[in-house]
Amino acid sequence: MDALLVVDVQNDFCPGGSLAVPDGDHVVPVINRLSSLFEVVLHTQDWHPAGHLSFASSHKGKNAYDVVALDYGKQVLWPDHCVQGTDGAAFHPDLDLKRSQLVLRKGFRRKIDSYSAFYENDQKTVTGLRGYLENRGISTLYVTGLAADFCVKWTVLDAMKEGFQVNVVEDAVRGIDLDGSLEQAWQEMVGAGARKISSDTLLHQL
Fold first, then answer.
1. What is the C-alpha separation between 166 and 155, in angstroms, rounded?
2. Which residues, including other chains, have CB under 8 Å from residue 205's CB and lie 6 or more apart?
3. Whole-angstrom distance between the N-terminal and C-terminal Cα of the chain?
4. CATH number of 2-49+81-205
5. Which residues are catalytic?
6. Which of 96, 145, 154, 188 has its CA 20 to 30 A from that of 181?
7. Strand, coil or helix: what is 150?
């Protein structure tokens, strides 16, 4: 069985948000068109407590996009974003959620960030998504959302490690692109075996 996985299409990652991805809102109509074609549609949602350790504001003298060493490794420091219960953490208002069967919240542990939909950034703490997919007999994922060079990338790489077949819908993702991170992300995803596909090709196939 196939599933459409929609990663973090939230207000803070869209224009006007505190961590806006360039043209992040452009993925919304593409995802909406695709969602009607899948029996299973899943969403992830960044869900940080105030004062999260990945926020630059939690580190005296540090600025957004600085990199620090935490217990689990290197961490990019971000502007405060997707704080639990705020409008920034809400899904984009035009995103069609009617067919969503699961909303997986991540990043809710204050001392560890979570890019991937499968593991938090220590690469040990699981989110439970693998078990959910396996129990439902889902073996192939079509991944969309924000941002291509962080949460989408890590979700794709972890999905590949867990044995899923992964397709990344190239016009349904957008990246932050910090110092070439977007091109690198595509190289890593395709190099790991993920398939890059356009929504037009997918719509034709389905």
1. 10
2. none
3. 13
4. 3.40.50.850
5. 8, 106, 151
6. 96
7. coil
